[in-house]
Each structure stands twice: as C-alpha cells, then as structure tokens.
Amino acid sequence: MAALALTAGLAITGTPAVARSDEAPAAMEASDVSIAADTYTWKNARIDGGGFVPGIVFNRSEKNLAYARTDIGGAYRWDQAGKRWKPLLDWVDWDRWGWTGVVSLASDSADPDNVYAAVGTYTNSWDPTEGAVLRSSDRGASWKAATLPFKLGGNMPGRGMGERLAVDPNKNSVLYLGAPSGNGLWRSTDAGVTWSEVTAFPNPGNYAQDPTDTSGYGNDNQGIVWVTFDERSGSAGSATKDIYVGVADKQNTVYRSTDGGTTWSRIAGQPTGYLAHKGVLDSATGYLYLTLSDTGGPYDGGKGQIWRYDTGSGAWKDVSPVAEADTFYGFGGLSVDRRRPGTLMATAYSAWWPDTQIFRSTDSGATWTQAWDYTSYPDRSNRYTLDVSSVPWLSWGANPSPPETAPKLGWMTESLEIDPFDSDRMMYGTGATVYGTENLTAWDSGGTFKITPMVRGIEETAVNDLASPPSGAPLLSALGDIGGFRHTDLDAVPGMMFTSPNLDSTTSLDFAETSPGTVVRVGNSDTAPHIGFSTDNGANWFQGSEPSGVTGGGTVAAAADGSGFVWSPEGAGVHRTTGYGSSWTASTGIPAGATVESDRKNPKKFYGFAGGTFYVSTDGGATFTAKATGLPSEGNVRFKALPGTEGDIWFAGGSATGAYGLWRSTDSGATFTKAANVQQADSVGFGKAAPGASYQTVFVSAKIGGVRGIFRSTDAGASWTRINDDAHQWAWTGAAITGDPRVYGRVYVSTNGRGIQVGESSGTGGGGTDPDPGDPDPGTDPGTEQPGSAACAVTYTVTNEWPGGFQADVTVTNTGEAAYDGWKLGWSFPGGQRISQMWNASYQQDGAKVTATDAGWNGTVAPGSSAGFGFTGSWSGGNAEPGAFTLDGKACTVG
C-alpha cells in the first residue's frame, strides 16, 4: 500500500460509469476473496411499488400465471398463494445492468413453463450492452440468453406500447420481436435460441418523440411496437397464418400477414394520424381493437381514439368512447374479457389531471361507461372505491381540491389486463404501482368495484442515498421519484414518504451523528424549496429557505452535533448555515458542485471533493482548504467519514479508464492510502463492529479479487468477504451502501430499480474459513474416524440458474450409527462448472474435482441428522449435476 496525496472529481449520474457489455456471460477471474463462513439472507426494505409498470401479461392456458415487467427494475411472476410478485432477474450483474430494463414479456400458452423477456434499458450510448431475449423453461427460475445485434429500450420513450414480443399460440417454437431504432421485425423458429430479421416486413417505423434531440433518446425511432396472433388461423403444431403488427408510423400503423409471416401488407382503411399503442384481438368475435394516441407515451399524449377492425369483413369502425375533440389524452391500456365476448376495457393513459380514466364496453365498443363521471363540476361520481391502506403513501399526503382526488386512480396507465380465467379480476399498472380488483363485474350491474394495490413484492425504486442512525428509525432513504421514507419497520410499508416539503427525488440526506434526531434532506423539485429539516429523526419535517439560484438538490451534510449544515446544491455554490437554514452564507475555498460530507466526531469539520481535489473545513464550512490530490479525476465518487473517530475517511470511486478503487485517510484528508486488494469500488459505508473486533465493519460495493459484489471487512480493510452471491446481484449497486450501527452484519444496499436490499448475516463473527493449506489431501482426513461405506446420503439441487451461472444446495445426511466428527465431501463436476462462493462450508477446487469441508460449527452430525451448505458458480457448455459423492473418501448414496 502506498500513501498518496489524493484528488478526484465527482459526477453523480444515473448511469453506472463502468458497465460494459459482453455477449457471453462475464468470465470469473481468479479470486483471493475470503470464503464466507456464513450465508447472508436478502430481502427488500418494503415500500411496495414506487415505479412504472408498463406491462402485465396473463398466460392464456393456465389459471393464476401472470407476469409483470418494469422499465428499470426487472420482471416478476405472480404468486397466487401469497398474493405477491416474485422477482425474476436479480441475477443480472453489474456489467449487464441494462438487462433490468424489460421492454416486453411473453408467456407461452402452449407450454406455460416457458416465458420470454426482451431486455435492454437504453438504445443509445447510455447503455453499453446489446439487448437480449431471455428464455426460461421453468417460469423464470432460470434463464438462458440470446444476445441481439442491437439494443432494446425498456426505459425509452414508447415503452408502454406493446407487447413487442409474442409466442405463436399454435406453434410455440415461433416467436416474433418488434425492434426499435429502425431494426425491423425479428423472428425465432427455435424457441428463442436464435433470431433473424424478417426481411420481408416493409416498415421499420419512423416515429420519434423529439427528432431534434441529439442524445439518441428522444430522437430514437420507436420502431415495431406490438405483435398479435389470430390463433383461429392455425392449429396445434402448425404456424398461425394471420399475424398483426403495430408500427410507430402515424400513416401506416398496422400490418398483417396471412401466410405465417412470409409476406406482409398494410391493412387498407386503417386510421391515420395516430400510433396504435396496443392491438388486441378478441378471437370470439373476430374483432381487432386498437388504442391510439398522437404520441408514443408514456408521459405525453394529447389526443386519441379507439378503433375496431372486423377481421372477417375487413371493415374499420371508430368506436372511441369520447369524441376526439374532447380528448386531451391518448388511449393506451387495452384488454378483452376472454370469458365474455364483446367485453373490453381501455385507459386514458396520459390523463394526468384531474385523474386517469378507465373505459368499459360490453358490446364490442358500441357503447361505453367510465370509471368516474362528473356530476356537477367539479364534483364527480366514482363507480369504484380505492383502498390504499396497504400502501398508504400512494396518497402522497395530498389533499387536493375537486375534481382531483387523493389517492388518484393512476397515471401512465399503459397496461390493463382482465384475467382470462376470471372476469372479476383485473390488474393495471401505473407510474407508481399495480392496482387491481376482484369484483370487476359489479361495474356492469350498477354497483361499485373495489380497487386495491396488488403490488406486494414489486420493489421498483431507484435509491440515491441511505442513512442508518444509531438511534431512532433503523433506516432513512433518499429515493428517485417518490422522495424517500423513514423506515421504522423494514418488513412493513411506511405510512408516508417525506413531506413538507415533498421532493420529486431526494438526492442526499444526512443526520447529526451525536444527535440523530436532527436530519436534513435535499432534492429536486419544480419549485422551491429543495431542502427540509427534521428534529425528530425524520418523523416530521419543516421547510428551509435556500440560497439564490438553486435548481436541484445536490449533496448536504449535517454537523456531528447538529449545530450547522453545509449544502452543495445544483445551480448555486457551496453554502453553510447555523440553525436550520433560516439564512445561508457562501462557503469559500471550494468550487460549486462539490460533494460534501461531515466529520462524524468534530462538529466544526466538513469535507468536500470536486475537480480532482479533496477539501477540508475546520470552521463549520465557512472556509475550505484544498488538501489531497491524486485520487480519481473522473467517474462516480462517494466518500464517508467513520463515526466516532475524527479524520478517518474512506473514499470509493473512479472509472475503468483511470484511477479506480478504495482509499483511506486517517489525517482528515491530508493524505490517502489506496487499498491494494480492491480493484474497483463505488460506494462505502460502516456498520456495527464484529464481536471482538476493534474497528467498525466496512461495507463496499466493489470489485475485489476479480469478482464484482457486495463485500464486508471486519479488520479495517485488511481482508474482505463477499456477502452477496450470483443470484443476488441487482445490476448496478453503486449509489449508496451503509451498515446498521446497531446490528452486526446488517447492510443496506442501494439499487437502481430494485429498491433497498437488506442483507442479514447468519453468523456472529467476521472473516472467512479457508481450507487448510497444509492438508496434503483435502479429500481425506487421517485424524477423523471415517464412517462406513454407504453411511451417508447426498442430495444436490440446483436452486437457481441464469446465463453462465447457477446456485446449488447440497445436503449430506448421516445414515450410519456413529456421529460425524467433522466431514469432507468430495465430487467431480461433469460440465466444467467452477465454484465462485460457498457458504456453511469451505472448499477447494482442482479442475473438476471439489472438496467441501465443514465450517466447524456444523461438523458434528448425529445419526439421522443432516448438514447442508450452498454455493454459487459458473458454467459453460452445460450444468449437469454430479453423479457421485464421497464422504471422507468413501462413497455416499445419491438421491
């Protein structure tokens, strides 16, 4: 380790600085990371929702099988027994972070075990990874990937249109995918393994949200936006003949093939001047319905229509529920009731004010009714009741004047689906949640139907900052779009987000280390204020004044005793205040845009970082002095001061093209020392010290020993243990991390779309257990009494699998009459698998040969009892299970 004078520049963005794309799964590098002696369990700090759900897909042949897709937070499968959603893409790694943006989902009605996801977040340079179609034959428990030669845009304009991915209901080896960016229509004939362009398709689309945008975002061609099969034109085992495709082209928005995709033509007589967001065919009536908008959404849309196409006669009919002149929104969500021919529903997806609208027809669009109507303006009558008691923050703490209500029925309502097996169940996605009902048909009889959140399990927040005070609530969060919360119970939905002020996105928060009731937060808002203060640990807030010119939140720091605050907002320079922001004074000696933090012991000491220089103030932020140089000058940077110790600072950040890693200063930033055993690091935080340890536990989101993950150190960074596994990676985790000062091992990890991840250690000590290097033969132990032949039974189960990786559990049962006094289990992998991490045991691997050794505490196994351990690993070519196991060199029964 070499002591350096350091400097770095901060650039907090929503895009990881070092993500890179590999068509094949990233190869594991040789690792010197400690082997974890215990396994971590992971869960979300419950918020329930928090982001846009643009797609809900029900399987057409199996009851209660449904999926949801999000724009940045992966995909989910509905668990009917628990009435909740199960995440399916937590295995997506740092390098392929864009695969958490899901542009489309398809569930196979011929074989309900099959599900497909088209993934990729941005079609421009923001996402360095090519898009892919993921395929699963076990409902999303494991996946394989087909990487595409272009990008997909799960978080691009038009992402609510669809579904762009579809499985032929008659011949399920055939799939179609509508591509953006002028890449046309694509087809697979081998169940998603390979894909090729349908060169006969004549129109790749031409609509862009903003052709003048030069970033590649607003000016991207939204392309082919949905594919719909008419299952009546095929039979089981033969390809469907009639296929309909929606195109982002206002003059030519619907095409059809009548020969199984060989030739295509524009359907004559179709509506023009609009984009068809959805195209849904009611096979019982032969009607194809279109919901149309003048834009691609999901935010915009000022005019709209609904049209019906008679696939038998070729006749088109405008069946809009509202005259075009009276619309101020586009139509998006669309579903037909598969059990009640002629019943359909649609949404006014872009009706932001006073509320979204939902329309229902029971006569194929001839007449419609609305979810709510005006009685005498501004009063309205609702056909529904909306109960958000399970997710109370959905009211946003608002008390609007009529005709607005709180909570709202929704906004960005691009997805609405009637359960094909239950006419009473309907779900629809909004910009913040999934709502649903189980007594929908009360609408038709003049009664009221009840809407409640059906969102449990979906955690879609983007996390900007986290804090865990030593008293009060265990966690405070700063979130994009919904502000943030005081989490008093990690397993319960918070009652309300931070209010007074309500911030669209909280960018930074801090508490006073020795007076944790004092909390400050800053964030983005259309108007002032951009800052709030609390004196009761975030339970209640009051607004602060702000310096002139503030346009965004930036970063903020609280003095250790709460006596003052330093704020570095967007649009203005660094400022300080004493008290609670009644007035502000510009700090000197530090540039605008610097990141600021406080010393956690000395209330007069604050730190800053910008433009390649580390800055220190010893007078409460009034003046700063440039100190260390030599730190990263580019990339994302986060740094934190250790609680209770003056001047102990840990600094994480950098970029792949320059300096990158983890540094520590023990002299208040005058000099820093780089950790030689950390290749890359992006965030750092502290938690309670391990039993017997003299230094607080350090947590990092980092690359150590060639492995990307979440790591902890109980010995001030001398050694590190990876505490997540390949099944729990959550793509990009670089924004924030903190341990809990009250619970050893507990860690809170930020994600960009999968909410706040909470890790709990099952052990009480730190460090790891490595195999004994002095053991000449790890497969046998001459000092241990060996069980007799067949005195053991082994079960080996692959519990999760993803492209290039897997997770497995192993259980060894003592079938003999004497207890094991320590054990070593050996096997050989048949498919080139490599273990990357093991818990509840240590291991050695030499080629295909593996030996797993007990962790000490589980070495004694009584007759009839079992010991278990688990591991994650990589595979290439195949992932077949081992066929034989030995315990201390003698054969076990396998089953």
From TrEMBL:
SMART domains named among the record's database cross-references: CBD_II
Domain CBM2: 785-895
InterPro entries: CBD2 (IPR001919), CBM2/CBM3_carb-bd_dom_sf (IPR008965), CBM2_carb-bd_dom_sf (IPR012291), CBM2_CS (IPR018366), WD40/YVTN_repeat-like_dom_sf (IPR015943), Xyloglucanase_GH74 (IPR052025)
Region (Disordered): 755-789
Entry-linked PROSITE patterns: CBM2, CBM2_A
Keywords assigned: Carbohydrate metabolism, Glycosidase, Hydrolase, Polysaccharide degradation, Signal
Family affiliation: Belongs to the glycosyl hydrolase 74 family.
Protein name per its UniProtKB record: Cellulose binding domain-containing protein
Species for this entry: Streptomyces halstedii
